[in-house]
Amino acid sequence: MTTRALLEVIALDVEDAVAAQAGGADRLELVTDMGADGLTPEVGTFAEVRAAVDIPVRVMLRAADGFAAGDVDALVRVGCDMRDAGADAFVFGFLDEVGGPDLGAVERLVARLDGCRWTFHRAVDRAADRDALRKQLADQPGLDTYLTAGSAEGVDAGLPVLLAEVARRGEPGYTQRLMAGGGLRLDHVPELRAAGVDAFHIGGAARRGGWSAPVAARAVREWRTALDASPDA
Predict the structure, then answer these.
(1) Which domain of life is it from (predicted)?
(2) Residue 43 is part of a domain; what is its CATH number?
(3) pTM for the predicted model, two decimal places
């Protein structure tokens, strides 16, 4: 039986969110400032998006470009503010100075987010040892997804890693969902779906004309159609 693949689309504002839902997105990742690869949006923006769409929204918690946690107190405060505004799912991921997971920062956020689901984002693609990172994070409450290209260079370079990791699904450290994203193209879909990848994340690919353009419902629909036409393993 074919399992419907999850399609997550990056949204910067209400216009993006409405278009993504109209095109068939299953979930949004809400961010601001893609010049820094996605930072925490304003609480007001989240509230507007939440009121405009009825698909799930995951909110980025990231204060600056790079993968250092920075001011964890500030991240905790904004996470709590987002929760007060109705957010129930988040995206974050921090590395320490040697490329391991910053467990202190992660654990402080997880404790205050009190059971919310969350995605460890593409910091995993910059980890010194991604297998060790997964195993160190395996028991973190709420962690249900890794957003990864398999490589810091994108899916083209990381495809063998993605295929190897999805084949380990269910092993310790590999119980979370693998969501492919980062330089993802439509021609990657058949091989990833055949291997069992069931979640896909797009940003620029959902737009006509790069990040200066809004999400286009037609572009999202093209991805929805491709995912639905490619059976899983």
Answers:
(1) Bacteria
(2) 3.20.20.380
(3) 0.96
